[in-house]
Amino acid sequence: MEIRECKRCLLLESGDKNNHETVVAYINKIKPEEKCDEEMYKKRLEICKNCDNLISGTCVKCGCYVEFRAAFKNKKCPDSKMRKW
Ligand code: SF4
Predict the structure, then answer these.
(1) pLDDT on residue 14
(2) How many CB atoms lie within 10 A of CB 81?
(3) FRET pair for 62, CA 20 to 30 Å: which of 2, 7, 70, 79?
(4) Structural domain boundaries of the chain?
(5) 37 C-alpha to center of ligand 1: Å?
(6) Contact predicate 54/16, CB 8 Å
(7) 70 pocket-lining for ligand 1 (C-beta < 6 Å)
(8) Distance 69 CA to ligand 1 centre (A)
C-alpha cells in the first residue's frame, strides 16, 4: 500500500505500515500504570478520526502520532482552545 496524505486517517489507514509498527512497539513499552485502558483508547482515537487536525495519523496541533499520544492515561488532546479528550 502506498503512503498518502490522508485527512482524518490513522497510520495504517494512510498506508504507513512501518511507522505504525514502530508506534505499536513504543506503545508496548509504556508502563502499565501510565497506559490508558482499551475503552478509553478507542474512544480517543474515534474522536481524533473526526477531527480536522488529524492528518495521516499525526495531530497537527502537537506533531504526535495520535495512536501513541492517546495511549497515555494522563495525556490530553493538545488543542487548548477546544480540547476534545
Ligand atoms: S486536536 Fe485532539 S482530537 Fe484533534 S487530532 Fe489532535 S489530539 Fe486528536
Answers:
(1) 87
(2) 5
(3) 2
(4) 1-85
(5) 18
(6) no
(7) no
(8) 10
Q: Which residues pair with 65 in a beta bridge?
A: 58
Provide the pairing of β-strand 54-55 with 58-59.
antiparallel
Nearest to 26 by CA among 71, 62, 85, 56: 71
Q: Is the pLDDT of residue 71 over 90?
A: yes
The mean pLDDT of 20-32, rounded to a whole number, is 97
Residues 6+ apart with CB under 8 A from 3: 14, 15, 16, 56
User: What gap in Å lies between CA 85 and CA 70, rounded to an integer?
Assistant: 9
Cβ contact 3:14 at 8 Å = yes
CB 66 within 8 A of CB 57: yes
- Within a 10 A sphere around the Cβ of 60, how many other Cβ atoms? 13
Given a cut of 70, is residue 1 above it in pLDDT? no
